[in-house]
Design goal:
It is built from 9 helices and 7 strands, in the order αβααββααβαβααββα. With 292 residues, the chain is an alpha/beta fold. The protein has one domain: Rossmann fold, CATH 3.40.50.410. The strands form 2 sheets. It has a 5-stranded mixed sheet with strand order 3-2-1-4-5, sandwiched between helices. A two-stranded antiparallel sheet has the order 6-7. The longest helix has 22 residues.
Length: 292
């Protein structure tokens, strides 16, 4: 399995380099690049979601980067550019680097990034280690030789940590590096498996996210995934100050919603219970403790 993963990663890296050169786009962010935001998109590819669901998740990110709201948010910052990398993670092993650090500084570069992401293979692995994803994402930020005003990890997933180090330990270590963690808990309406937990949104709020203006945006239906990812990216890129109870967001172009007085975002709050969530719930579920 490790050999296969290594070969897959190497093939993806070579293909990405070839595509980058062929399209005339810079495939990676050069050393010393100065941007408004360093953003790691840490995407869960654990096998609790099937291939079709993983494909829909991938296209959600692709469609988001093709949308004018995201392009405008990228170009509206003080420097008018951000650096983004995409990694896919699952269990307690090295995540797959799908797209290396890339500077997005124009509509053309954002489109090229989306096109490149669409062409990458869809992966799938076992178990869920949010802690390993957080450690790995922070390491990628620290080693990239990019200068930025803000750093953030956008972690998406449909389950709790059930492998690797405790998630609170990883979160606290990342927050000490002044990196913000935002969450996209995917809560699909389907029969629960032995490794699932109740109220994943509460788990993400209490155990995963943190930092200045950190927030979660839950997904309850895959057909809303693309629009939810888009709205979440706009908030992250724009660095909006929002409450940590952030829930679904209404945009000016949302169906059946009145236009706000000024163009922009209308926040819709979802108050989650403040009672502490068991941050070992995922480990206990996998070990069968859920039924005791």
């Amino acid at each position: 399995m490790n050999i296969l993963r290594a070969l897959t990663a190497a093939t993806c890296a070579l293909a990405a380099l070839v595509m980058g050169n062929a399209s005339g786009q810079q495939p990676q962010a050069g050393p010393g690049a100065q941007v408004d935001l360093e953003l790691v998109l840490a995407v869960d590819v654990s096998q609790s979601m099937d291939y079709e669901e993983h494909t829909l998740q991938r296209m959600g990110y692709v469609d988001a980067f093709r949308h004018k709201d995201v392009v405008n948010a990228i170009l509206s910052g003080p420097r008018g550019r951000i650096a983004v990398t995409v990694m896919e993670w699952a269990g307690d092993w090295d995540p797959i680097d799908l797209i290396p650090w890339t500077v997005l500084d124009s509509e053309a570069s954002v489109k090229a990034f989306a096109d490149r992401l669409e062409k990458e293979p869809v992966n799938g692995e076992q178990r869920t280690s949010i802690s390993n994803a957080l450690y790995s994402a922070a390491d990628r930020i620290e080693r990239n030789n990019i200068s930025s005003i803000r750093q953030a990890i956008d972690v998406s997933g449909d389950g709790a940590n059930n492998a690797g180090a405790p998630v609170e330990q990883a979160r606290d270590a990342v927050l000490k590096k002044n990196i913000t963690i935002n969450g996209l808990p995917i809560m699909l309406n389907k029969p629960m498996q032995y490794y699932d937990i109740d109220h994943l949104d509460r788990y993400y709020k209490h155990c995963v996210i943190g930092g200045p203006a950190s927030f979660i945006v839950p997904v309850f239906d895959l057909k809303h995934l693309a629009s939810t990812i888009r709205k979440k990216l706009v908030m992250e890129i724009a660095g909006l100050e929002v409450a940590p109870d952030m829930a679904p967001i209404q945009f000016a172009d949302a169906p059946d919603e009145p236009l706000p007085a000024k163009p922009g975002i209308v926040l819709a709050q979802l108050k989650l219970p403040t009672a502490k969530t068991d941050c070992f719930a995922g480990e206990k579920a996998v070990n069968g403790m859920r039924f005791q």
